[in-house]
Each structure stands twice: as C-alpha cells, then as structure tokens.
Write a structure and sequence with these properties.
This protein is an alpha/beta fold. It contains eleven helices and eight strands.
Amino acid sequence: MPLATVNGISLNYQVKGDRAKGTDVKGGGPLVVMIMGTGSPGRVWELHQVPALVAAGYRVCTFDNRGIAPSYEAAGGMTIDDLVRDTAALIEFLGEGPALVVGQSMGSRVAQELALARPDLVRKAVFMAGHGRLDQFQKTLSLGEHELDAAGTRLPAKYDAALTAIMNLSPATLADTNAARDWLDLFEFTGGPVSPGVRAQRRMDHDFDRLAAYRQIRVPCLSMGFADDRMIPPYLSREVAEVIPGARYQEIPDAGHFGYLERPEAVNKVLLEFFAGA
C-alpha cells in the first residue's frame, strides 16, 4: 500500500477497482472510502466488503487510520477531529470526491463527523455500529482498557480470545461449534501486546454526546446496527438515524460488533442497495 502525506502525517492507503469494468483507473467508477474501527487496519475490509464493492463496479479506498502502523502512530495522543481531518485530506488527495463513505464503530464516528463538517466530500454515508454517545457500560469498559494498558497487564491468550469473542460476536456464531473454534483460534493467534498507536486510539474522549449536532447533517445516511452487538448496542445506532434528517436505520440479525465479518452477505446487500438507490 502506498503512503500519502495528508494533514501533515503519513497515511497508508490502497485503492482497488475492477479492470474488466474500467474502474481500475481514477474516475472509472464511484469512489468508496472505508474507515475502520479502533485497533484494526484497513485491510480488514478486504475480506468481504472490498470484493463485493469492486464486483459491483465501485473503486474502493481502504487505509490505516493514524495510530495503526505504517500510518503515523500518534502515540502521544489524537482526537476524533484529527481522524476526520485525515480522512477529508485523503479524499482531497485522491481527487475523486465527493465519495461514498463507510465507517465501522470508531470509523463511524469519523464518518458521522465528516458528513457534518465536510458535506462537500460525502455523497452518501453508512455508519456500521455508529453512535452519537456512549452509555455507562462502554465508558466503564474504556476506562478498564486504559487501566490494563497503563499497568501493562497481559491476559492469558486463551482467556483474552474468549473475552474478545464474547464482546464482538453474536451468540448465534458462538453456538456454532466450528465457527466458534475458528474465531477463537483467530483471536488467540492475532492477540498480543497493544501498540502505542492503538493505546492512543483507545484513550480518545469517550464522554461525548453529539446527537444534537447530527441534526444538521444533510447528506443521505444509513445507520446500520448489529442486533447482538455488546460493544455498541443497536439502540445507539438507531439513535443516530433518528436525529439525522431523512436517515435510514437497518439492523442485521444474528450479528455482533464484527457483524460485517460474521454476516457479510447481509451487510453487503444493504450496503450495495443503499449506494445504488436514489
């Protein structure tokens, strides 16, 4: 993936398109910019969403947010406004805006704020596990993560994998023996020390309420909730749709916080239909 210098930092990004459909060159198809959540690289979108979008004739940009190497790690700290300006500058750098924008969790907060601050850069926006505020559980969980990071505490790998699964997957997935084993193996294999950049992402302000501000968003928006999401319960995602004029809410059943990975066919269907609609 190439590095772009935008908003005074380096961002690691990639743009993909379908050569057969003529979308592999700039301007060959509508651009979709995908913004990942806390602690995850942009390549996670490559598993399911990028292939579906490319097959439908879109050009797709994925990137690593600041905090995720090899993008600028910003170990000293960052704000959502920093991430919003990074994304806006990347769209301007690509020269293909306004873009279709997709966010997940923290990335949805970025997409929401981008739609509010820079509507000239956003054609339509999708917020997966979007939220305009956090409830007391998320705030307490975040403080607990900060304390773990500060203490340098390392949980046993299998226990860490089990906690990750419980917090991010649907009970329907965990009830499937084969699926549960595969996910737990993945989490155990990919766990380990948290980087300074990811710790900086985790330290961002969690005591916010932006619902009133989002009443001023005017671009077409879809808020997507995951029915079994423990990290961002779907009522928080529904709230976002309720305050944005004309926004839609869609809930994906049998899906946890990683619903875009658990139920990719359902998620991609909603995504493509929204982008193709008037």
